[in-house]
Design a protein that fits this description.
Structural class: alpha/beta
Radius of gyration: 21 Å
Helix content: 40-55%
Strand order of the largest sheet: 1-2-3-4-6-5
Strand content: 15-25%
Distance between the termini: 26 Å
Order of helices and strands: HHHHEEEHEEEHH
């Protein structure tokens, strides 16, 4: 039967991923309420100035700060959502104990998903990890998947330092869009997913009723 949402993962898997994210939102909202908002370290003096000088009532400021804290706590769950989506594509899976976020089931591809700009030493450490792994597994390709940049690219990862320029023929840097395309064979995969999310979420909410 033809999928209702996207053609690269099953409807059931996509709904499950949305359900997992929904549970993360519920947990975040339960953990950050107005009651425990004041039990955390809150600068009430600044809150008063913000309210008076910006002509915003204190209740609105508190609600905005609670939403900001919920948003901050939910970011890791959005990362996990992408891992679960990509891990549901045929021939691929979530890395689990492999040391990678996504891997091919036949061990021909390994990837780590990055959602924020990393310190140089951390990035260099990942590069070294990829190269060492690639030397041992000569049939696999390795991908540093960039979810934080607006650029769209797929290129060999070249590390430049004071001593040398280093690369490996099977170690790459790739944008999120290109990585979705690589795994699905569809150049518009991530856009299609984004366009279908409202429908998926509404269907998921209907199931909760």
């Amino acid at each position: 039967m033809k999928n209702k949402y996207v053609n690269f993962i099953t409807d059931d898997h996509l709904l499950e991923c949305v359900g997992n994210l929904h549970n993360a939102y519920l947990k975040a909202k339960n953990n950050i309420t107005k009651k425990n908002f004041y039990s955390n370290k809150v600068d009430t003096i600044k809150l008063t100035f913000d309210s008076k000088f910006n002509d915003i009532d204190e209740e609105s400021l508190i609600q905005a700060e609670i939403l900001r804290q919920i948003d901050k706590s939910i970011n890791n769950s959005i990362d996990t959502f992408h891992e679960q989506i990509l891990g549901g594509i045929k021939s691929f899976e979530v890395g689990n104990l492999s040391g990678f976020d996504i891997k091919a089931k036949d061990d021909s591809l390994f990837a780590i998903l990055i959602f924020e700009l990393l310190p140089k030493n951390i990035e260099e450490g990942l590069f070294e990890k990829f190269c060492n792994h690639a030397r041992l597994n000569k049939k696999a390709s390795y991908y540093f998947v960039d979810f934080f940049s607006n650029d769209d690219y797929y290129k060999k990862w070249v590390l430049i330092n004071e001593e040398a320029t280093v690369s490996h023929k099977r170690v790459f840097k790739i944008s999120a869009n290109k990585f979705y395309q690589l795994l699905t064979g569809n150049e518009d995969a991530i856009s299609i997913l984004q366009n279908k999310l409202q429908i998926v979420v509404e269907d998921f909410k209907t199931q909760l009723i």
